[in-house]
Each structure stands twice: as structure tokens, then as C-alpha cells.
Automatic annotation (TrEMBL):
SUPFAM superfamilies recorded: F-box domain
Regions annotated as coiled coil: none
Organism of derivation: Eruca vesicaria subsp. sativa
Name of the protein in its database record: F-box domain-containing protein
Domain F-box: 37-77
Length: 419
């Protein structure tokens, strides 16, 4: 009888706790219904969480997963990060640095992104938190936030890429289709038949990331005239642009690839641009528009030429000549010594052109050997063309000391999509 009484009391207490718990949960649901948190406030709360917390937060609910992986959330600004290759005796590592909390505007190396699968590969492109690793015709996409790596399949149907050739050139580029919210990889393959025969073979291929098992490379009709791309593509307003060299033409062609429709067209270009200096000519974004930058005289004379596309349909360009202030010119000459140059490595969201120092040696026409840097101090120059202001930005590190370093990109986006 005592046991039955104790059991009855225990059951009664458990039932009472369950009833109270149901009442509390019901009250919480009622409170949430009456005081619904605005969506903008939810976004503000989520975007303040660190990356590791966001990765765990994705598994809380389908709503959290959809918010964090949405393009809207990806587009939100985060702290800018600079990505670098560092070379040592027996290894090559990939690191990133975040902006320093101080007021000096410097960056601090704080992440090692190296994974074994990238050995033998180089970074060809950084776009919205995604990196494209290439090794000849092989390519991989690496998400710097989730650390997910996807090996792209071979382009088996290509008539050019299958055979290794001395005059073959392969360029991979990542772009985003805003209408279908898809990331696409564009592969441009070109090849000269031989040194004497200047006929160009050209192919364009597109691969959709996250397209499932049935996803594969699709061949896109290439425009005429056949050409060899000599600039890395630039994506702006849903279109990718690049410059290509055509045999027997004095100036390159200006090519546009529509990310959504996947149509390619050759545009007219600025007529008075100095196209003979290909190495110092790059397509950049200027105030939301396509522009062509010639910085061949920046180190010597502090002069930069800029052509801005004012009207793409009417082929209207404006030309600007920028001259550095005397003090800024001295800063450049102090850090850029003999056999050194500056390479354009994209544009920040604030409109600053990223200029990376390079120590190079020219052995002949179009033959360049990249030498180690002259210092173990990491840095880049940021050139704001609208304000005509150039500043040096240091990348500090107490752990790594090497002259074999190169800056491969700057991004201010964390991408949580599954590639």
C-alpha cells in the first residue's frame, strides 16, 4: 500500500509539472504571436554572430538555414578580409587577415585556410567568399567560410582542353546569377595552333554550382573574332567583362558575357586607349560602371589613365588623367624599387583599387619571372580613383616571416551557401 501511495504521488507530481510546462510553452507562443520580432531585427541579430556560431545556427531550423544561406544575407557587409599565399621551403599556405581594431587601417593575419587538397593548385579568382583553385585544366571551388571544397568535373567534350599544348590558355571565373540565385563557373579555353600559325581556337563553357548530380559543363557559342583572353574577368550588374587579344589586330576586343542569359557579345572599346601596354591594362569597376585602367606610368610619373563606360549602347566613354600628389608619389617610390611593379587585384566595395607589389624580371617578349618580394613586411596599396588618394595598408603577422608572399584578393562577404 505504501508503494502504491508513493507511486501515485510521483505520477501526480510529474503530471503537474507537465501541465505547468505546457502552460508555460503556450504562454511563450502567445507572447511571440503578440510581440513578433521584426525580420530586420532578426537579421541584425544574426549578422552580429561569428562565423562558427552561424554555421551551428544553420541547423536550428529551416528558417534559420534559409536566412543564413540567402543571397540577401550574403550581400550584407562584413569585415573585409585580405587573402594571401605564403611560400616556405617545403610548403605553400593560404591565410587571411581581418581589419585591425585600431585606427591605423592595417590588417592582421588571423586565419590559416590551408587544406591538403589545394597542394599544387593556385588561386585564379576570389569572388563573394568563393575561391577558384586551378592546376592546368583542373579546377576546384573553395568556400572560405564553410571550408567546403568542390572538385569540378573535367570538360570531356572540349576539343582544346583535353590536349596539353604550349599555346593553350585556360581561365576560370566565378559569377552569380541574381535571377535564379545560382553561382556559375565560366571557363574560357583558347589555343594558337602553333607559333607560326596564328589561328585561334576558342571555347566558352559554363558550370552551375549546386546543380545536382545531373549538372555538367555546357558549351556556349563563342563570339567572333576568335581571341585569347589576357585579363581576368570582372563581374558587375550581372555581366562579366574581359579583354581579349586577336591576331593581326593592334588593339584587343572588349567581350561581355551575360550571366543570366549566357549570351556572349563583342563590344566596342575606347578608341584612344594605349592598348600596346597589355600588362598594365585592366578592367575595373568605377562608381558602379565598367572602366579600363592604364597604370603603366604610375610608379615612374605618378600618372594613371582611366576610361569609364558612360553608355554601353552608344559606346560613350569618358577619359580621365589622374596625377598623384608629390607626397604620395614619394611613398610609392620608397616601397617600389627596381624591377618591381604594381598589379591590379580588383576593387573594394568602397571603390578603392587594390594594387599588389610584384618583384618581376622580364626575360623577353611576354615572358616574366616573378621573384620573391624584397621584404618580409606584407602590404598593399589602395587607390581611390574618385578622390585621387593612394594609401599604403600593412598586413601584420607575428607568426609568418617570408619574402615569398602574394596578395590574391580582398573580400568583405561571408558566404554560407553549400557549393
Amino acid at each position: 500500500m505504501s508503494f502504491s501511495f508513493d507511486l501515485a504521488v510521483t505520477l501526480q507530481r510529474q503530471t503537474s509539472r507537465m501541465m505547468r510546462s505546457k502552460v508555460i510553452r503556450k504562454r511563450q507562443r502567445d507572447i511571440c504571436k503578440r510581440q513578433e520580432i521584426p525580420f530586420d531585427l532578426v537579421i541584425e541579430i544574426i549578422k552580429r554572430l561569428p562565423s562558427k556560431s552561424l554555421m551551428r545556427f544553420k541547423s536550428v531550423s529551416k528558417l534559420c538555414l534559409s536566412i543564413i544561406c540567402s543571397q540577401y544575407f550574403t550581400n550584407l557587409s562584413s569585415l573585409p578580409r585580405i587573402y594571401m599565399w605564403l611560400g616556405f621551403d617545403k610548403e605553400k599556405i593560404l591565410v587571411s587577415s581581418s581589419s585591425s581594431p585600431g585606427l591605423d587601417g592595417s590588417f592582421v593575419v588571423d586565419q590559416d585556410l590551408t587544406i591538403p587538397a589545394m597542394k599544387g593548385y593556385s588561386v585564379s579568382h576570389v569572388y563573394r567568399g568563393l575561391m577558384c583553385f586551378t592546376n592546368g585544366p583542373n579546377a576546384q571551388i573553395y568556400n572560405t567560410t564553410t571550408r567546403q571544397l568542390v572538385v569540378l568535373p573535367d570538360i570531356e567534350e572540349s576539343n582544346i582542353i583535353a590536349k596539353d599544348h604550349k599555346f593553350r590558355k585556360i581561365i576560370y571565373h566565378i559569377a552569380h546569377d541574381s535571377v535564379h540565385d545560382q553561382y556559375k563557373v565560366i571557363c574560357i579555353v583558347s589555343r594558337r595552333k602553333s607559333r607560326r600559325i596564328v589561328k585561334i581556337l576558342l571555347e566558352h563553357w559554363v558550370f552551375t554550382l549546386g546543380g545536382g548530380v545531373s549538372s555538367g559543363w555546357r558549351k556556349i557559342p563563342s563570339p567572333c573574332p576568335p581571341h585569347t583572353p589576357f585579363t581576368q574577368g570582372l563581374t558587375i550588374n550581372g555581366r562579366m567583362y574581359y579583354l581579349g587579344l586577336v591576331p593581326n589586330l593592334l588593339s584587343p576586343v572588349f567581350v561581355r558575357f551575360d550571366i543570366i542569359s549566357e549570351e556572349i557579345s563583342v563590344l566596342q572599346k575606347a578608341e584612344d586607349a594605349f592598348w600596346c601596354r597589355y600588362y598594365y591594362t585592366e578592367i575595373i569597376e568605377y562608381d558602379g560602371r565598367i572602366a579600363i585602367l592604364d597604370h603603366s606610368d604610375l610608379i615612374k610619373d605618378g600618372v594613371t589613365l582611366l576610361w569609364v563606360m558612360e553608355d554601353e549602347v552608344k559606346n560613350m566613354w569618358s577619359k580621365k588623367t589622374l596625377v598623384l600628389h608629390y607626397s604620395q608619389m614619394n611613398m610609392v617610390k620608397t616601397h617600389i624599387v627596381h624591377n618591381m611593379s604594381l598589379r591590379v587585384q580588383g576593387t573594394t566595395r568602397n571603390g578603392d583599387v587594390i594594387l599588389v607589389p610584384q618583384h618581376i624580371f622580364r626575360t623577353g617578349h611576354d615572358q616574366i619571372i616573378v621573384l620573391p618580394q624584397v621584404t618580409t613586411l606584407f602590404y598593399v596599396f589602395l587607390y581611390n580613383l574618385q578622390k585621387n588618394q593612394l594609401r599604403k595598408v600593412e598586413i601584420k603577422s607575428n607568426r609568418y616571416h617570408t619574402k615569398r608572399w602574394d596578395v590574391i584578393g580582398l573580400e568583405d562577404i561571408e558566404n554560407f551557401m553549400n557549393v
